[in-house]
Amino acid sequence: MSTAGAGPSSKVKTGSSQPSEASLKRKRGMFQKDLHHMMYGFGDDANPLPETVALVEDIVVDYVTELVHKAQDVATKRGKLLTEDFLFLIRKDLPKLNRCTELLSMNEELKQARKAFEVDEEKLVSID
Amino acid sequence: MKKSKDPFEIAFEEQEESPPESPVGLDENEPQTSAGPSVNLGEDFAANPTVHTTDPSTSSAVPVAVGTSGPIAKPKEDDEEEEEENMEVELGKLPSRGDPDKTAKMQEILAHFTTDQMSRYESFRRSGFQKSNMKRLLSSITGSAKISIPMTIVVSGIAKMFVGEIVETAKVVMSERRESGPIRPCHIREAYRRLKVDGKIPKRSVPRLFR
């Protein structure tokens, strides 16, 4: 698999700093199961080839690494790394941006819903 | 473009007038009707991030994929911080975002699905990166131990859409070469190259020293 995407990814790999090198040495198949289902959902065969899954995993880890590095570059001016930094990075990519804002607001709603649920439960308990 | 009698195609045309946020890739895929409805399905729904599911017809209660990294039926191990219990929150309780028009159209389309299409759609909605794995990856990259939950959610969402772009482009490549079957690494590599040309892959803008 080291020859996979030899051209583009080798440049990226040697250009990246130590931490990502170490993370690339992690065991294979970190996202294997998830990627199986995901690739099927996006149009691949019901049984994607293992080498394809491994390659996509490498690409995704690379992508996330680059994204995080860029976000860190943006964030160092301000201090901590925040979620907003990622949102800033994908601002040009409308589908991704919309999806992320949707996910974040759904997360908020779920949190509210759960809080309300717990409050109700307490009320029930106190009534009893 | 040949007109098939596929119910999905019929319902899809109904939806035509209010196009969702479709990326450019959708246009490339238009002539690719031979690849079957399931591929079009994947593209259309991947292109439509604001699709909202209130579909009660799926018996297994397709959970709203918060963070898209929630595993399907596995119990969550990392219940530390403000972790959600599980996706058992009723879909009905969630206020419908977007217009009821869209959701109605969605349900119309979903009603016409074959089992094949349904299973693929289910995989599409429920698949996601595991939060714990993503968290571990993020902390190893950033070097900081604490990664907030929303950040994991955002990165998982971005990564999932990225996988979608790759797989869809790979399918396009495959149809251009008139091949079929499971996607092979060469297709993925070609897809990756094309995305790079499009500028969708982030790369280091600072040129490396001592090249």
Automatic annotation (TrEMBL), chain A:
Superkingdom per UniProt: Eukaryota
One Pfam match: TFIID-18kDa
GO cellular component: nucleus
Location within or outside the cell: Nucleus
The entry's keywords: Nucleus, Transcription, Transcription regulation
Keyword Iron: no
Keyword Acyltransferase recorded: no
Polar residues bias locations: 11-21
Location of region: Disordered: 1-28
Transmembrane segments: none
Family membership: Belongs to the TAF13 family.
Protein name: Transcription initiation factor TFIID subunit 13
Organism: Penstemon smallii
Automatic annotation (TrEMBL), chain B:
Keywords: Activator, Nucleus, Transcription, Transcription regulation
The keyword Transmembrane is annotated on this UniProt entry: no
Main location: nucleus
CDD domains per the UniProt record, alphabetical: HFD_TAF11
Occurrences of domain TAFII28-like protein (ranges): 109-194
GO annotations of cellular component type: nucleus
Gene3D superfamilies, per the entry: Histone, subunit A
Compositional bias per record (Polar residues), positions renumbered to this chain: 50-61
Subcellular location: Nucleus
Record InterPro entries: Histone-fold, TAF11-like, TAFII28_dom
Region called Disordered, residue ranges: 1-101
Biased composition (Acidic residues): 78-88
Stored Pfam families: TAFII28
Keyword Transcription: yes
Role: TAFs are components of the transcription factor IID (TFIID) complex that is essential for mediating regulation of RNA polymerase transcription.
Protein family according to the UniProt entry: Belongs to the TAF11 family.
Protein name, UniProt field: TAFII28-like protein domain-containing protein
